[in-house]
Amino acid sequence: MMSFQFFDKIKENIERVSNEETQKIVTLSEMLYEAVVNKQSIYIFGAGHAGIISCEMYYRAGGFMLFNPIFPRELSIDNEPITITSQIERLEGYGRVIAMKANFKTNDLLIVHSVSGRNSAGIDVALVAKENGAHVVAITNLEYSKSVSSRHSSGKRLYEVSDLIIDNHGVIGDAICELEGSQQKVASSSTIIATVILNEAITQLAQRLVDEGLKDLPFFTSANLDGGDQKNENLYKIYRDQIHYRYK
According to a count of CB atoms within 10 Å of the terminal CB, is the N or C end of the chain lower? Predict the structure, then answer.
């Protein structure tokens, strides 16, 4: 009978996160709420494949409009040669350069996704945010991160420079499926788990905003629904002070 190992392991992973990270996800939702009502800026960053979560949270049907992604071209996974992304992610100081475009201010919020948490780009972006009074949330794998050394001169990993740490409870190396007759492991879990974590947090946020009577929720409607474009444009005008990307 065909095995569905990835299905099974992802379900186990989600169950563990839901059991062990619940309070931290609630805390993240509360931090998002404070940023919304106090008109603070909310940023999200990841390098290479970790940056897929920034794409997932950006301009997405049902997605939170106030996520401002930091998208450095050099850390995109469509670079050639493909190894250049890894090299630049490890380059200390580069994260400080790209963090300058964010213009972090006191009580802004930055979410950084990095599975190992060891590379300089994410650490530098987090450090710049904290130096400017912003709060930093790390979505990482604590077991993995604690098993490796930092590639930053501070000797610190992402979780050691963050205010809130949400553990994805994945495995060291990220690939979760084992193969009979081989030492090779396949199929990473981190993108799916980070997506689950953030979607849970923004769902809790949205419900709280509804409960408090907010009518114009800062969430995208699908552009493929009739009236979706106009609704999104109207919301952009309401929240433009917290949105740093160009809408039109």
Answer: N
